């Protein structure tokens, strides 16, 4: 009986050292291994982008926050800039006009304010494309405006 057990165990483990079937070998050669994927070169430290500057224009009715993008930069109208205040309010910027495809604001992009809105502090999130770029970037920063 002991001899039967030894022979059956030896028969089960005999195929482990054999080469894999030809179909499995072809699939393995066709699929790249993770280590074969090239890595991107390191280009140095990444600068944090805080987005286009903003300014507060005061008026008798309160004021407005105006975005000041560089010449050629475009503010994304499909994801307009949003200022989330410390108390959780979300204030969306708006523009007077948009491009023909409704993708970008044309002209001034601003957020109207009433006197009760000041002082104003929160996180401003802006999606914009720099001049010559075809892919918009998202910038996030804290802004503070005092009366």
What's the gist of this structure?
This protein is mainly beta and 147 residues long.
Head-to-tail CA distance between termini? 96 Å
Mean pLDDT: 80
Main β-sheet description: 5 strands, antiparallel
Ranges where pLDDT stays below 50 over 5 or more residues in a row are none
* Approximate strand percentage: 35-45%
Structural class: mainly beta
Radius of gyration: 30 Å
Number of helices: 2
Amount of helix = 10-25%
Principal-axes geometry comes out as globular
H-E string: HHEEEEEEEEE
> In total, how many beta strands?
9
How would you describe what is shown here?
With 147 residues, the protein is mostly beta strands. Helices cover 14% and strands 37% of the residues. The protein contains 2 helices and 9 strands. It has helices at residues 2-13, 22-30, and strands at 54-59, 62-67, 74-75, 82-85, 90-92, 94-98, 105-113, 120-129, 137-145. The strands form 2 sheets. Strands 3, 4, 5, 8 and 9 form a 5-stranded antiparallel β-sheet that branches. A hairpin with a 6-residue loop joins β6 and β7. The longest helix is centred in the first third of the chain and has 12 residues, at 2-13. The model has no long low-confidence stretch (mean pLDDT 80).
What keywords describe this structure?
mainly beta, five-stranded antiparallel β-sheet, 147 residues
